[in-house]
Automatic annotation (TrEMBL):
Domain G-protein coupled receptors family 1 profile: 44-295
Example GO BP: cellular response to lipid
Swiss-Prot/TrEMBL keywords: Cell membrane, G-protein coupled receptor, Membrane, Olfaction, Receptor, Sensory transduction, Transducer, Transmembrane, Transmembrane helix
GO cellular component: plasma membrane
Name of the protein described by the UniProt record: Olfactory receptor
GO MF annotation: an example: olfactory receptor activity
Main location: membrane
Membrane protein topology class: Multi-pass membrane protein
InterPro entries referenced in this protein's UniProt entry, alphabetically: GPCR_Rhodpsn, GPCR_Rhodpsn_7TM, Olfact_rcpt, OR51/52/56-like
Segments traversing the membrane: 28-52, 64-89, 144-166, 200-225, 237-255, 275-295
Domain of life: Eukaryota
Intracellular or extracellular location(s): Cell membrane; Membrane
Any Pfam family: 7tm_4
């Protein structure tokens, strides 16, 4: 019996999963759109970053926050490319423990950073609409840099315990993960040890990102709507709301699948595995794909710069 138990600890890899039941078609029909989505996401966010960095006229708070969002989306795409495309293009399912822990750290710390950036963008819209005369004096470049640094440190500090806690475990459960990438909530269930600390800390970080972040964004928009409703001019009313559309789209794209996936992982044990997998892909791939499009369409200033770059 001890020999059997010993063999359980010899595995040094997790096995990732593509789309169950679609193995015959995923190498071609699924890999092509995935490749297209990744290329589009990387190009879109890279172009926006390049234009904002190189164009001095775009060195304003709104565009600096947008560059932070673009850099985060670019990082998320790069962090998930190796395993997702590895499965669909080469049927490479194995990932070592250390590589898995590193991937979940980068994915979840970048997502934590993105939630912080979305909150900063809400603060930017709040100041721009509710206190426009003090906008330039409040959101100075040094203050924005400090905000960005705090967001990065917050993401690293909150997520770094995840791989450290997971690394101390031995894994004797089935080593097949249900996604094409590593997430803390799933990896910790593979451990043959008490995961109470992981559960409590995971819940704590979830509350801070999925709970507190959206709540503060909601409160900022309550104040924005209250201010906008006091505007008597219908034209000014629409103009003020129009400046928030892009940010609201980014918030919905980020939090809707994340909130749904969190609920399913924690409370939806009987839910369809396919639903979890599809939400997982939407959660990681759709925001980096759509955000550059939304901001390029809604920002006339940014759109004209992009057109000028490609026309040249």
């Amino acid at each position: 019996m001890s020999a059997v138990n010993d063999t359980k600890f010899k595995s040094s890899v997790f096995l990732l999963t593509g789309i169950p039941g679609q193995e015959d078609v995923q190498n071609l029909w699924i890999s092509l759109p995935f490749c297209l989505m990744y290329v589009t996401s990387i190009l879109g966010n890279s172009v926006i970053l390049f234009i904002i960095i190189t164009d001095p006229s775009l060195h304003e708070p709104m565009y600096i926050f947008l560059s932070m969002l673009g850099a985060t989306d670019l990082g998320l795409s790069i962090a998930t490319i190796p395993t997702i495309l590895g499965i669909f293009l080469f049927n490479s399912r194995e990932i070592s423990f250390d590589a898995c822990f590193a991937q979940l750290f980068f994915i979840q710390s970048l997502q934590c950073f993105e939630s912080s950036v979305l909150l900063l963008m809400a603060f930017d819209r709040f100041i721009a609409i509710c206190d426009p005369l003090r906008y330039a004096s409040i959101l100075t470049l040094p203050r924005i840099a400090k905000m960005g640094l705090v967001c990065v440190l917050r993401g690293v500090a909150m997520i770094l315990p995840f791989p450290l806690l997971l690394k101390r475990f031995q894994y004797c459960q089935a080593n097949v993960l249900s996604h094409s990438y590593c997430l803390h909530m799933e990896v910790m269930t593979m451990a043959c040890a008490d995961i109470t600390v992981n559960n409590i800390y995971g819940l704590f970080t979830t509350v801070l990102t999925v709970g507190v972040g959206p709540l503060l964004i909601f409160l900022s928009y309550v104040m924005i709507i209250k201010t906008v409703l006091s505007i008597t001019s219908h034209k000014e009313f629409l103009r003020a709301l129009n400046t928030c559309v892009s940010h609201l789209c980014a918030v919905l794209l980020f939090y809707t699948p994340e909130f749904s996936l969190t609920l399913i992982h924690r409370f939806g044990k009987g839910s369809s595995p396919l639903l979890q997998i599809v939400l997982g892909y939407v959660y990681l791939m759709v925001p980096p794909l759509i955000n550059p499009v939304v901001y390029s369409v809604k920002s006339k200033h940014l759109r004209s710069r992009i057109i000028r770059v490609f026309v040249k």
